[in-house]
Amino acid sequence: MVASVIDGKKIANELHVEIRAKADALAASHGVVPGLAVVLVGEDPASAVYVRNKVKATAECGLKSFEFKLPAETSEAEVLGIVERLNKDPDVHGILVQLPLPKHIDSDKVLGLIDPDKDVDGFHPLNAGRLSVGLPGFVPCTPRGSAILIEKVQPDLSGLHAVVIGRSNIVGKPMAQLLLQKNATVTIAHSRTKDLPAVCRTADILVAAVGRPEMVKADWVKPGAIVIDVGINRITTPEGKGKLVGDVAYAECAEVAGAITPVPGGVGPMTIACLMLNTLDSAYRAAGATV
Ligand code: NDP
């Protein structure tokens, strides 16, 4: 079997078009343009690329962006002050603080200060709680985007077995919650899981969010399974070139899976599209309009 490729880039672009139409409609009906504030502290090159891509998508979707690029030595108090200002700014519907923050800044403190109603990353404990008890709130962008990709190939997950490798608060745990909401039977695997390949082989839907280059091999994949590769790993090829790979050994797993996401061009663009979607949702809510 050769897997069908789940084209995250194309699906994300389609989502951008829909978001733009809805943003334009809100501007016309309520005079409100959804606004996203992005705070970047320091010069981490990967973070700079992520922020650039997010700002580009904001423009594509017809949203307003507010960028705060601060030097690495910015104090925690200054960052907290900016978050407080953005919390009060009615033109800002979403606040994103790019992680990782420099070591002298307590990320939990900064993320915890973001108004949960502007927490478009969905990292605030209140939004994590809302997701786990099934209340409406912001869902972290990567799991939300991954769930959309899964739905494109398999709209009904009822009774299917989903295995999520990784239990982080930003990917693994919320991903498992979403799959559970869709009536999948969910297993969360992690670094202490015994016989991980055997666990993965039972998955109808396998989500890898680990951060280990090409860890998932073909013989970990059940024939016909949906494989979602969240990992983004920068490796150096034997020729000395830099390359992005996922947590899944793509070429060999594509021989076994039913559908698979590539890296790049799979989950990554969906993460950004869902950030736009969360900002749009927030602006609609703030304006008292229905999406
Ligand atoms: P974390 O490092 O926070 O979590 C990694 C998880 O993988 C942990 O739960 C860890 O287990 C588990 N793990 C580590 N090694 C193994 C192993 N050998 N076997 C089984 N489980 C293991 O990472 P994130 O969740 O933040 O990110 C995961 C990946 O997704 C990274 O590559 C990251 O770059 C990528 N990412 C991609 C995004 C996108 O937009 N596409 C967005 C966010 C992340 P334990 O808890 O036991 O330590």
Detail the topology: elements first, then pairings.
Elements: E1 4-5, H1 8-30, E2 35-41, H2 45-60, E3 64-70, H3 76-88, E4 94-97, H4 107-113, H5 125-133, H6 141-153, E5 161-165, H7 172-181, E6 185-189, H8 196-200, E7 205-208, E8 226-229, E9 233-236, E10 242-245, H9 250-253, E11 259-260, H10 267-287
Parallel strand pairs: 1-11, 2-3, 2-4, 5-6, 5-7, 7-8, 8-11
Antiparallel strand pairs: 9-10
Describe this structure in words.
- With 291 residues, the chain is an alpha/beta fold.
- The chain folds into 2 domains: 31-116, Rossmann fold (3-Layer(aba) Sandwich), CATH 3.40.50.10860; 141-268, NAD(P)-binding Rossmann-like Domain (Rossmann fold, 3-Layer(aba) Sandwich), CATH 3.40.50.
- The chain is 42% helix and 16% strand.
- The chain contains 10 helices and 11 strands.
- The chain has helices at 8-30, 45-60, 76-88, 107-113, 125-133, 141-153, 172-181, 196-200, 250-253, 267-287, and strands at residues 4-5, 35-41, 64-70, 94-97, 161-165, 185-189, 205-208, 226-229, 233-236, 242-245, 259-260.
- It has a 6-stranded parallel β-sheet with strand order 1-11-8-7-5-6.
- Helix 2 links the parallel strand 2 (35-41) and strand 3 (64-70).
- The longest helix is centred in the first third of the chain and has 23 residues, at 8-30.
- The radius of gyration is 19 Å and the shape is globular.
- The chain starts with a strand and ends with a helix.
- The model has no long low-confidence stretch (mean pLDDT 97).
- The protein binds NADPH dihydro-nicotinamide-adenine-dinucleotide phosphate.
